[in-house]
């Protein structure tokens, strides 16, 4: 193909929204962006907003030929280092507090080994009312090119302070520990579309001061349908049953992730929690914009 025809072909590909063979070889090794979340729980409201970023230990294809772009890290088995930060504003009905949230996590994956390992920590400080810290760890392996299983563990520790006149007169600590097993699978349909499944089951214990130990069990299933390699439509459900009435109930999730270009994406998620005992519901919305480079 001569230079004139090559330039014409590039203009046609751009006009039709398709990528040229040269663009298919592009790669990225990091992504960064901004996220905003809103939580409504009874009369309480909480918003969190801030930046986040990830660095991948190997370069990833910006235009994969046989799987969705969102699944590049999973299919190519590439590890990463991620960090997040956010400003928190809480309105509890009778008090308004400001705090912050920060976290870091690392994930080990390599193309030449099936092993998957993850560790992470997230800290949240919401003024003088509730502080929390989340620890996470996971160890798993690929059992096929697009199938993996893992053992998961997490622990949330919270500290609630009750104060008046600038003095703290009561403080409560809680610990939530969860252990379970999860699986992930990316399937290609006969139509050429893809569906990604994530499922798991776990057991949680709630430790409180001057209270009996409470135990719950939960099971979840989440599916993402990719009508194109640039669009993912998500839906999921989680069932929680056991002694702890605060967490017992159902969570429904829906959302979408759209890549407007291979470098820029927008992610929208909505979760609704229905408590079993009280019949109350909580709403949680997250919007995330990311740029890959």
Give a verbal description of the structure.
The protein has 293 residues and is mostly beta strands. Helices cover 6% and strands 70% of the residues. A hairpin with a 2-residue loop joins β10 (214-228) and β11. It starts with a helix and ends with a strand. The relative contact order is 0.13. Mean pLDDT is 86; it is low at 1-24.
Number of strands: 14
Element order, helices and strands?
Answer: HEEHEEEEEEEEEEEE
Helix content: under 10%
Measured distance between first and last alpha carbons: 30 Å
Count of alpha and pi helical runs: 2
Radius of gyration over all CA atoms, rounded? 22 Å
Note the quaternary state here: single chain
Secondary structure class reads mainly beta
Shape, principal axes of CA atoms:
globular
Mean pLDDT, to the nearest integer, reads: 86
Strand order of the largest sheet: 1-2-3-4-5-6-7-8-9-10-11-12-13-14
Strand content: over 45%
Largest sheet: 14 strands, antiparallel, barrel
Sequence stretches where pLDDT stays below 50 over 5 or more residues: 1-24
């Amino acid at each position: 193909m001569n230079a004139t025809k090559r330039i014409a072909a590039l203009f046609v590909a751009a006009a039709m929204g398709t990528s040229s063979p040269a663009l298919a070889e592009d790669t990225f090794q990091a992504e960064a962006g901004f996220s905003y979340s809103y939580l409504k729980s009874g009369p309480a409201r909480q918003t969190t907003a801030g930046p986040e970023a990830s660095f991948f230990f190997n370069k990833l294809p910006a235009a994969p030929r046989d799987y969705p772009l969102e699944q590049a890290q999973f299919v190519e088995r590439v590890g990463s280092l991620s960090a997040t930060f956010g400003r928190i504003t809480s309105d509890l009905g009778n008090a308004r507090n400001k705090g912050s949230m920060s976290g870091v996590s690392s994930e080990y994956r390599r193309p030449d080994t099936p092993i998957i390992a993850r560790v992470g920590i997230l800290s949240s400080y919401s003024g003088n009312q509730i502080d929390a810290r989340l620890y996470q760890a996971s160890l798993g392996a690929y059992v096929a090119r697009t199938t993996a299983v893992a053992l998961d563990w997490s622990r949330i520790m919270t500290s609630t302070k009750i104060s008046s006149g600038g003095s703290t007169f009561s403080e409560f600590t809680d610990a939530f520990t969860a252990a379970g097993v999860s699986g992930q699978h990316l399937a290609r349909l006969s139509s050429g579309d893809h569906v990604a499944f994530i499922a798991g089951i776990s057991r949680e214990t709630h430790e409180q001061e001057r209270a009996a130990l409470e135990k719950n069990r939960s099971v979840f299933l989440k599916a993402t349908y990719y009508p194109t390699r640039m669009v993912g439509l998500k839906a999921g459900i989680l069932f929680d049953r056991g002694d702890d009435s605060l967490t017992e109930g159902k969570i429904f999730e829906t959302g979408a992730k759209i890549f407007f270009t291979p470098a820029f994406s927008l992610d929208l998620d909505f979760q609704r929690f229905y408590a079993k005992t009280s019949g109350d519901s909580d709403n949680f919305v997250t919007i995330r914009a990311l740029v890959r480079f």
